[in-house]
Amino acid sequence: MIKENVTALRKTLTQKGKQKKEEITLIAVSKTVDAEKVLEAMAAGQRIFGENRVQELLKKQENLSAYPDISWHLIGHLQTNKVKQVIGKVDLIHSLDRLSLADEIEKQAIKHHISVPCLIQVNMGEEESKFGIAKEEIFEMVSALSKYPHIAVKGLMTVAPYASNPEEIRWVFREMKGLFEKLKMNPYQNISMEFLSMGMSNDYEIAIQEGANMVRIGTGIFGERNYHQ
Ligand SMILES: *Cc1c(COP(=O)(O)O)cnc(C)c1O
């Protein structure tokens, strides 16, 4: 079913992208899923995979080292002491949410002579349980991040609050898009607003309607996760 799920999703995203005249990127969220299943998704053309834990990401990269065309994204919370383990190993970090983390990324990036593409994570729903900066802090954050020459901010990311009816959280995606467009109009060094990463299995359709151009889908591709295997 994985292959069929990916094919159907990619087709839908291509169509929606055409309507909006921009590409919509699918991140297949492979957390808790084994390498074999990643290969099934690859058979349907998928190349970008998202992981939320550093340990699991590194292990999966190793298991799949025969497939260098996979692009790995880190979508989960990043502890400062884990930065040196992932630096240079992921194509995009979706979870830049504090300057102390930026300090460490900058430091490691200098060591490796690279620039690190990141998205700023915003906690739009103001949930205590979620990571991300408050929307009121975004302009200050962006202006601070523009002073880190080895961090390339490429856009924004959010995890919307869970809602059994995703219509209830449409406002989250709409406000994110508003912020994204506002930031686009303000030129800052090292900051570009290319990617708006929002929308998961339960709410990606609404996220896209409101302007997401990057969606992160796990369950909708791989089925329900089993955290205890
Ligand atoms: C797990 C996860 C997803 C995917 O969630 P699904 O509901 O399975 O599609 C997306 N984004 C983040 C940050 C996640 O941790």
List the main descriptive attributes of the protein structure presented here:
single chain; 229 residues; alpha/beta; 9 helices; binds pyridoxal-5'-phosphate
Describe this structure in words.
With about 230 residues, the protein is of the alpha/beta class. About 40% of the residues lie in helices and about 20% in strands. It contains nine helices and eight strands. The chain has an eight-stranded parallel beta sheet. Helix 5 links the parallel strand 4 (about 90-95) and strand 5 (about 115-120). Helix 1 crosses helix 2 (about 35-45). It is globular and about 45 Å long. Bound molecules: pyridoxal-5'-phosphate. Pyridoxal-5'-phosphate binds near residues 159, 201, 216 and 220.
Compute the number of helices.
Answer: 9
Helix amount: 25-40%
| Radius of gyration over C-alpha positions, nearest whole angstrom | 17 Å
User: First CA to last CA: what distance?
Assistant: 20 Å
Order of helices and strands: HEHEHEHEHEHEHEHEH
Query: What is the number of beta strands?
Result: 8
Question: Would you tell me the structural class of the helices and strands?
Answer: alpha/beta
- Give the overall form: globular
Ligand types: pyridoxal-5'-phosphate
Unreliable runs, pLDDT <50, ≥5 residues?
Answer: none
Q: How would you classify the quaternary structure?
A: single chain
Q: Mean pLDDT score, rounded?
A: 96
Biggest sheet descriptor:
8 strands, parallel
